[in-house]
Amino acid sequence: MRHPGIVISCLAGALALSACAKTSTSEVNRAFRDVNVVDESNLNDIMLTVGDPNEAVAYFQRTAADNPGRIDVQRNLATSLIRAKRPTEGVAAWSKVVANKESNLEDKVDYADALIRDGQWDKADKVLDTIPPTHETYKRYRLEAMIADSNKEWTKSDSFYETAVGLTTKPGGVLNNWGYSKLTRGDFSEAEKLFAQSIQHDPGLFTAKNNLVLARGAQRNYTLPVIPMSQIERAQLLQTLGLSAVKQGDVETGKALLREAIDTHPQHFEEAVRSLRALES
């Protein structure tokens, strides 16, 4: 004998359970989507900063293939290619970004940066010319200064470097570039000042330390500046100073500095040894 009341109750219960299951599944899926967004964001940051550059390229290539319409993924791929020192591919990736209707002015700046890294200075100059002067960023003016340097437009170069310095809280790198610009022009004393300022802002920037020694050597000042340096750095700077002395024609002074560099270095300093042997032979 059938019991319609019981059947109806069971059906109602089953439908309710089914609705609960659907609601639960929907909520779970939504929760997982939210978690995945957070995880993806964290992973992207890791890949762009501390991850292996070529692994980052492979990761963003896969992500871009799965999400062809996402400009943020295209940017990350382009950035990772430049970080992996693959500028030609980076140029192609950034050109795709700037062609996207969602791109912005900073994308053009990054595109110009990629072009410079790929040796396409004239094209980079043209790209920067398309950016309105109201877009004032440190990176934009640093690139403008580099291009002005390459064209030997020194007044423009100095103006752009000065602007770039004022637009960043970490001017060590751009001060070093500005100093190198002065060094190539033969303005050694001004270059020395800029390198010293660069080191004040970034005491770990060895390139600026080496350039500072080159500027002093060009003025026949063969004493090391009072700057923070490790024992290995001291030996390397003494070698640079010694070679600068030789270039100025002060060969005996150069030899003495190379001997001091060899004695200072905590390990065997092969480069300085070779240089000294070449001079003594």
UniProtKB/TrEMBL annotation:
Segment forming the signal sequence: 1-21
Domain of life per record: Bacteria
Xref: SMART domains: TPR
Keyword Signal attributed: yes
UniProt keywords, alphabetically: Signal
The keyword Signal is assigned to this record: yes
PROSITE patterns named among the record's database cross-references: PROKAR_LIPOPROTEIN
InterPro entries per record: TPR-like_helical_dom_sf (IPR011990), TPR_rpt (IPR019734)
UniProt name for this protein: Flp pilus assembly protein TadD, contains TPR repeats
